[in-house]
Fold DUF2630 family protein.
Amino acid sequence: MTDDTDKDVLTRIKALVDEEHQLRSGGSGDDAGRLASLEAQLDQCWDLLRQRRAAKEFGNDPGAAHARPISEVEGYQQ
C-alpha cells in the first residue's frame, strides 16, 4: 500500500468489507482463517487512512504515511 491516496485506501477498505460480508453470509467454518486475515487487513487500512488524514490536518505530507505491520495495528485499542 505504498503511494496510496485516500481514495485508494477507501476503495481497498470497501473491497475488504464486501468480501468479509460475503464470507459471513456464507457461514462456512472453513472461512475463519480468511475472516481473521480480512479483519487484520482492515485494521491496517484504517490505520493508514488515519495516518494520512492526521498528516494532512497538521500540514504534513500524507504520502509519507505508510502501512504499519499487522502485528502492530492489531494491538491498538479501539
